[in-house]
Amino acid sequence: MALKTANEFLDTIKKMKPRVYIGGKWVKNLLDNPVTRSMVMANAAMYGLAEDPANKEVMVATSHLTGEPINRNLNVARNIHDLDMRQEMALLTSQTVGTCNYRCVGCDALNSLAATTWEMDRDLGTKYNERFNKWLAYAQANDLAVSGAITDAKGDRRKRPTQQDEIDVFVHLVEKRDDGIVVSGIKVSQSGAIGSHETLVLPGGALKEGEEQFALAFVVQNSVPGLTYVCQYNAYSAEREMCGDESELGNPIYGQRETSTMIFDKVFIPWDRVFLCGETKFCGKMVTRFAKAHRMNCGGACKVGFADLIIGGTMLAAEYIGVEKVPHIQEKIIDMVRLSETSHACAIAAAMRGREEPKGSGVYLPDDLFGNAAKLNIAHGFWEIIKNAGDIGGGLVVTMPRLKDLDDPEVGPALKKAFSAAAPAAKRLKVAKFLQHWSAGLHGPGTWHGAGAPQTQRFMFTVLTDFEKKKKMAKKLMGMTEE
Ligand SMILES: Cc1cc2nc3c(=O)[nH]c(=O)nc-3n(C[C@H](O)[C@H](O)[C@H](O)COP(=O)(O)OP(=O)(O)OC[C@H]3O[C@@H](n4cnc5c(N)ncnc54)[C@H](O)[C@@H]3O)c2cc1C
User: Fold this and answer.
1) How buried is residue 142: exposed, middle or buried, by Cβ count under 10 Å (0-12/13-18/19+)?
2) Which residues of the chain have pLDDT under 70?
3) Secondary structure class of 154 (helix, strand, coil)
4) 294 CB within 6 A, ligand 1
5) Alpha-carbon Rg of the chain, whole angstroms?
6) Ligand 1 test: best mutation among 39, 260, 449, most atoms within 8 Å of CB?
7) What phi and psi values does residue 65 have, to the nearest 5 degrees?
């Protein structure tokens, strides 16, 4: 069975018993807690999308290992079309759930692993690629939801992993045994790890000789002994827990972007699940290849899907107060479209200019420069987009009462008078709550940092841009001769 239905996925989640802590409580069942349920439902929606024949080209791929149809989230891109469909999947999934699709980091991590383990086997004579392919075939056959853990807690950013006061701020090797390895350490900001079947763990950055104990890539099952997830907790979590009626919320079913801190305390990983152990030279490549894929998808196309939703909500807000034809409103909407479509164009360009890397591996990765452009453009553009949503939505976006208050026998009639405009009060408040979720929620910093803080993309521009060539072009046109 290579493709699971949404219901089959939910059945598997009911059987899992991860050690999950949220807002002062341990979660016994992910589907009982309203916050963890929103994350699981978004993941289930990904299975639902793949079930729909209308989405087949985007959501379903063919396994290069078995020839079977598989969820594209488990596909290794083998050509330009795969890359293009991958970024289209990021767009479609965001448009559908208005939050993280929770399989994106895992998908980009497995593409990096496919390329880098192949290269390690070629150069070092290891068997990592063989192991990785065996695991991948199993993941594909069982249509596993796989998240990706790259970001270490990192501690003092000025220091190398070996110089930190507390070694656990980086995931590290504790013991090498005949049957596998034992690892400890902490990964932070892990999207959807609690409700995924497995998590691919990659090194958090390039490593040097002497840092071998941090050079680890492996896959870990949810619910293994020693693994604890501490979920993010904020005003949106509290509101979801306390509201009593989720239809009141800005994103009723799927919620905000849910992440957790993953704490590894002497977790055992069998050798057949270890894909890099001590080879520091390949950590930089592994992370860079992940980033190439992730900046096109999470950094670029995914946020374009969010922008589509925000633009739709903002237009409704304008219509509901009768300003949709006013020139400055139309101009602001067009600016929102300009910013988001520019990022989509960069994501498409990253796919179209993608290439096999390393040569002979059969793995295709997106173009670095365009992927970084997609991410950096939307990181800045997203603030502008949510600013315009806040502008057009009016103060109501943050000053509104509860939607349910409209039905209160005492205050309801006055509220209906207050908030009726070119549309009834209930419609206005519903849209205001939707825009609150985007513009006054977690999405601004989430978009800024997801797929890497923008300074890393700026750095990549300095590495990838041939400035000398540009200077030469300018000199030639000016008629300046070379000294
Ligand atoms: C919503 C969301 C979902 C995420 N999902 C995942 C996920 O599923 N998996 C995963 O692995 N990660 C995930 N991340 C983590 C994301 O990749 C990181 O947030 C991002 O890489 C930035 O790292 P940081 O948060 O540790 O910020 P920091 O590294 O603390 O950066 C803070 C600031 O310090 C600067 N800075 C940091 N180090 C240095 C330095 N050495 N020199 C100069 N300046 C420096 C940065 O440029 C930035 O301005 C997610 C993040 C968010 C917000």
Assistant:
1) middle
2) 1, 482-483
3) coil
4) no
5) 24
6) 449
7) -90, -35
Rounded to an integer, what distance in angstroms lies between the CA atom of residue 54 and that of residue 69? 15
Q: Whose CA is nearest to atom 15 of ligand 1?
A: 189
| CATH architecture of the domain covering 285-475 | Up-down Bundle (1.20)
Q: Are 193 and 297 in contact (CB under 8 A)?
A: no
Q: Which of 191, 232, 302, 442 has the most ligand 1 atoms within 8 A of CB, as the residue to mutate?
A: 191
User: Who contacts 289 (Cβ-Cβ below 8 Å, separation ≥6)?
Assistant: 111, 112, 115, 116, 357, 365
Tell me how far apart the alpha carbons of residues 18 and 31 are, in angstroms, rounded to a whole number. Answer: 12
Cis peptide bond N-terminal to 358, omega within 30: yes
CA–CA separation, 190 and 188 (whole Å): 6
Give the pLDDT confidence of 205-240 residue by residue, as tens digits: 999 999 999 999 999 999 999 999 999 999 999 999
Are the C-beta atoms of residues 308 and 95 closer than 8 Å to each other? yes
Q: What is the pLDDT of residue 2?
A: 81
Query: How many degrees, rounded to 5, is the angle at CA 351 between CA 345 and CA 352?
Result: 85
Task: Return the structure tokens found at 33.
Answer: 């807690």
191 close to ligand 1 (CB < 6 Angstrom) = yes
Q: Report whether 128 contacts 119 (CB < 8 A).
A: no
CA 154 to ligand 1 center in whole angstroms:
10
| CA-closest candidate to residue 33, choices 160, 267, 194, 147 | 194
Rounded to the nearest whole angstrom, what is the distance from the C-alpha of residue 153 to the centroid of ligand 1? 9
End-to-end CA distance of the chain: 68
The Cα 425–Cα 142 span in angstroms is: 47
Cβ–Cβ < 8 Å for 345, 304? no
**pLDDT attached to residue 444:** 94
pTM over 0.85: yes
Q: Give pLDDT, residue 482.
A: 67
Measured distance CA(249)–CA(203) in Å, rounded:
37
Span 6-282 CATH architecture: Beta Barrel (2.40)
Which residues, in sequence order, are bridge partners of residue 260? 190, 231
Q: Say yes or no: CB of residue 453 within 6 Å of ligand 1.
A: yes
Which position has the token pair 């390039």?
A: 206
Question: Tokens 């190439």 map to which residue?
Answer: 292
What are the pLDDT digits (tens) for 317-355?
A: 999 999 999 999 999 999 999 999 999 999 999 999 999
The distance of Cα 417 from the centroid of its chain, to the nearest Å, equals 42
**CB count in 10 Å sphere of residue 188:** 18
Q: Which atom of ligand 1 sits closest to the CA of residue 191?
A: 8
Token pair in block for residue 356: 């096999």
Domain ranges of the chain: 6-282, 285-475
Q: Which residues pair with 20 in a beta bridge?
A: 27, 229
